[in-house]
Structures are given as structure tokens and as C-alpha cells.
Amino acid sequence: MDSNYENLSDKELVAVILSNKEAFSVIISRYEALLRRYISRLGVRDKRDIEDILQNSFIKVYRFLLSFDDSFSFSSWIYRIVHNETYDFFRLKKRKPEITLEDDTEQVFLNIESDHDGPDELFDKNIDKASIQNALESLDKKYRDVLLLRYFEDKDYRQISDILQIPEGTVATLVHRGKKALKSFL
After folding, report:
1. Does some domain include residue 70?
2. Domain at 154, CATH number
3. In this predicted structure, what is the pLDDT of residue 142?
4. CA 147 to CA 155: how far, in whole Å?
5. pTM for the full model?
6. CA dihedral over 15, 152, 48, 60, signed as positive or negative
7. What is the DSSP letter of 101?
8. C-alpha span between 81 and 67 (Å, rounded)
């Protein structure tokens, strides 16, 4: 792998990969850890299942790279593929996602709180990780997905819109309603 490829933007790298397939390894190294964490946060617990989903996702990314629309963010596109692969996994296994939160949960939770203006909207800052995890698992999938992408994967509304293929206004509404629902669970 040529180290020159590592400094390219995602869109530039896609163009290079179309003529030099070996450069795809840069995409893998750039996104592997992020996507593994996202799959885990969506509720896949078994490491082998995570690896299978990740591998299937990278295969799809490679196969459909020609169809990538560069008017969208590559990051959003690859997250959408992983998101869909993960939910296909749940459908095939007939399992319900079990949210898995990592040690950065407290900081993420403070970020969720900081989006609110009034004191009525502030959450109790002493809520523990298990309570947040249970509350997220209790949320409707549409709210859980946008909150995980927004606060745990640090995606903006445009990126969430691209990943979930819903309008940005809907994303904003779902984030707002999801936070309200999360508050009521907590």
C-alpha cells in the first residue's frame, strides 16, 4: 500500500481505487475501527458476528464503489451500508438489537444534554451507563438510530439523513423526539 494514498480525501481515494484496487486497503484501515464500534453500538454482541457484518459490508463497498455518488459524503455512504447490513443480520437471526455502550457514554450523555436550552430539558447528570443503555434499548428503533448516529458516532444531520435515507428535517424531529423519549425513560 502506498502511503501517499493515506493523505487523500475519501472522494479522491475512491477515484484512485477505481484504477488501483490495492488502494482499497486504505479505506479498510480508515473505517474499520469506527464501523466495528458502530456495529457494536447497534447491538451486535458477538465478536464473530461483528467481523462477519464488517466483512460483508466491505465486500459490498468494494462491489458497489462504481455506483458511489460523490455528491454525498463517502462516510455517510459506508455507514449506510453497515447500518443496512447490521439490520439484515438482525432480521436473519430474528434477534432484537441490544445496545452496547462504551466508556465514553458519560461524555456523550453530557453532549446530549448540552443541546437543550431550558432547565426543564436538562437530564440528571448522575444517571449511570446501565440506565442509559436500558433507556436506549427501550426507545423505538427510529429514535435509537438517530441518537446513536448523532451522539455516539458524532454525525451531523446531513450525514444522518444520508445514512438513514430520510430528510434532514425528519432527522431533526427524530432527534428532538428521541431526546424527549430518552428523558422520559430516565
Report:
1. yes
2. 1.10.10.10
3. 92
4. 10
5. 0.76
6. negative
7. -
8. 13
Q: Which residues of 45-71 are buried (b: 16+ CB within 10 A; e: fewer)?
A: eeeebbeebbebbbeebeeebeebeee
Sole residue written with cell 446531513 = 158
Distance linking the first and last C-alpha atoms of the chain: 48
Residue 7 DSSP code: G
Q: Considering only the C-alpha atoms of the chain, give the largest distance between any 2 of them, rounded to a whole number of Å.
A: 55
- In this structure, is residue 100 part of a structural domain? no
All residues at 6 or more sequence positions from 91 whose CB lies less than 8 Å from its CB, including other chains? none
Which residue is it, cell 451507563?
129
For the purposes of burial, counting CB atoms within 10 Å of the CB of 150, is it exposed (0-12), middle (13-18) or buried (19 or more)? buried
d(CA 137, CA 16): 41
64 three-class SS: coil
Q: What is the mean pLDDT of each run of 10 residues along the chain (186 residues)?
A: 78 90 93 95 91 97 91 92 94 67 51 49 54 83 92 92 94 94 84
Is 148 in the same domain as 88?
no
